[in-house]
Amino acid sequence: MSRLAQTHGLTDVQTEILSTVRDFVDKEIIPVATELEHRDEYPQDIVDGLKELGLFGLMIPEEYGGLGESLLTYALCVEEIARGWMSVSGIINTHFIVAYMLKQHGTQEQKDHFLPRMAAGDIRGAFSMSEPALGSDVSAISSKAVRDGDEYVLNGQKMWLTNGGTSSLVAVLVKSDEGHPEGTAAHKSMTTFLVEKEPGFGEVRPGLTIPGKIDKMGYKGVDTTELIMDGLRVPADRVLGGVTGRGFYQMMDGVEVGRVNVAARGCGVAQRAFELGVQYAQQRHTFGKQIAQHQAIQFKLAEMATKVEAAHAMMVNAARKKDSGERNDLEAGMAKYLASEYCKEVVEDAFRIHGGYGFSKEYEIERLYREAPMLLIGEGTAEIQKMIIGRRLLEEYRFQG
Ligand SMILES: Cc1cc2nc3c(=O)[nH]c(=O)nc-3n(C[C@H](O)[C@H](O)[C@H](O)COP(=O)(O)OP(=O)(O)OC[C@H]3O[C@@H](n4cnc5c(N)ncnc54)[C@H](O)[C@@H]3O)c2cc1C
Question: Per the UniProt record, which residue ranges are transmembrane (predicted)?
Answer without folding.
Answer: none
